[in-house]
Amino acid sequence: MSQEVKIFALSTCIHCKKAKEYLDQCGVKYTPVHVDWLTGEERNNTLAELKKYNPAASFPTILVGDRVIVGFRKDELDQALGIA
Is the pLDDT of residue 2 over 80? Predict the structure, then answer.
């Protein structure tokens, strides 16, 4: 899989944890961004980036290439990753 995968997450979010575990099980390399671990300008910039993809800024927000998946939706992830 050549698409870049990025997940905006909270360290305390069970849905975020399940999404990351699923990506790990599938062997998908991804970049996790734990928004609650960020502070100051880095946090503000990250939230602004997140809101471009998901104006509600809910978690997890997963980017697979140019596709945006809000929440842990296994079927949508499988389709976006080409493993369905």
Answer: no
